[in-house]
Amino acid sequence: MDRFIEETPFFNAEHLRLAASVASFVWREIEPRADADEDETEQSKSDERFRELVALLAQAELLRYAVARPDAAGFDVRALCLIREELSYSSPLADLAFVMQGLGTHAISLAAPEHVRDFWLARAAGGRAVAAFALTEPEVGSDVSAIQTTARRDGDGYLLDGRKRFISNAGIADFYTVFARTGTRADGRAEISAFVVGARMQGFSVRERTRLIAPHPVGEIEFENLRVPAEDRVGAEGDGFGLAMQTLGTFRASVGAAACGMARRALDEAVAYARRRKQFGQPLAAHQLIQEKLADMSVELDAARLLVYRAAYLRDTYGQEDSYAPTLARAASTAKLYATEAAQRIIDQALQIHGGAGLIHGHIVERLYRDIRALRIYEGTSEIQKLVIARELLKDSDE
């Protein structure tokens, strides 16, 4: 890591040690593999590489920072953000392999029966099972309460029917935390419950593997009369919406951290290129318009990182206090919104500084240009974050 970690008040000595250790691991193990993320077109080989990344992260004992302990006690969001930023600096795919183990297990850590919880958390943290978080549907994106996938009670279990779309790790994951409608509330909205679904269960299928603009294992899954034992329900009936929101709220600031990692790499590449590339008889770095771009990029990156780690610090410090819930929600949404939007601008300017060289497929800034775009959409679009911020701001004003 650069000196930002040492120069800000959000971290303790353990965080400093972790940051240095992760930076060394990434440069030694992840950076040499980063180019290969683009090269693999055969699905089976791509899936194998992804599983290798999960195993590598487990061997480095990093997955324990993504997979919460029972009841999520002591979950360190600052450590989560530090790791995501460093992984994304080198390989957004490695970052995905890391964070999905957490997203796919967080609700389980909070509310699953003890034997179910302990089984899947141990396997996910050890890299022996790949996790997924199945919330989005073909007709349901930001409006989570409009879920159409159903889970109807049948004896000592539930029968699941429906489809989930844009699911990270679809086709690779060994298990999915699935959110489904188990009833209808008085206001007509869905009563949502959560379930653990194994990829080998009868009635489960992968409808398609979706190719995105950047390497990202994602696809559409389907449940057809899939029987889930009642013991694999996570929490009580109707707890699903709250569990989904708790999961997203906990991990939201870390999306901003991933964006900061990509933006920091783009800035480093732009500075290095501006120093060595000559135009009109002098380095690009000697031209004032280039200096202006670099200055703007640096300021935006610092601002984004400060917002991200403030949100993470608040979550770690006040996460158990209900009175701080509005503050935490606003801080996380602010961090996610600003960091992802700023990273898009920073990477765009980095590509502009590189000129035609930045357009070559496989160039670092060209890869970043494609990788960053999804972060403004998933785990709550920028527009949704603005609504959350405004809602909490207006709520504060009423008080």
Spatial gap, N to C terminus = 41 Å
Number of domains: 3
Order of helices and strands: HHHHHHHHEEEEEEEEHEEHHHH
The overall strand count is: 10
- Summed up, the helix count is 13
CATH A-level architecture of the largest domain: Up-down Bundle
Inertia-based shape: globular
Sequence of strands across the biggest β-sheet: 1-4-5-8
Query: Can you tell me the residue ranges where pLDDT is under 50 for at least 5 consecutive residues?
Result: none
Query: What is the C-level CATH assignment of the largest domain?
Result: Mainly Alpha
Oligomer: single chain
In summary, what is this structure?
The protein has 399 residues and is an alpha+beta fold. Helix content is 54%, strand content 16%. The longest helix has 37 residues, at 240-276.
Task: Describe it.
With 399 residues, this protein is α+β, with helices and mostly antiparallel strands. The protein has three domains: 4-125, Orthogonal Bundle (Butyryl-Coa Dehydrogenase, subunit A, domain 1); 131-236, Butyryl-CoA Dehydrogenase, subunit A, domain 2 (Beta Barrel), CATH 2.40.110.10; 241-398, Butyryl-CoA Dehydrogenase, subunit A, domain 3 (Up-down Bundle), CATH 1.20.140. The protein has 13 helices and ten strands. Strands 1-4-5-8 form a four-stranded mixed beta sheet. The protein has a four-stranded antiparallel beta sheet with strand order 2-3-7-6, with no helix packed on it. The protein has a two-stranded antiparallel ribbon with strand order 9-10. The two termini are 41 Å apart. The model has no long low-confidence stretch (mean pLDDT 93).
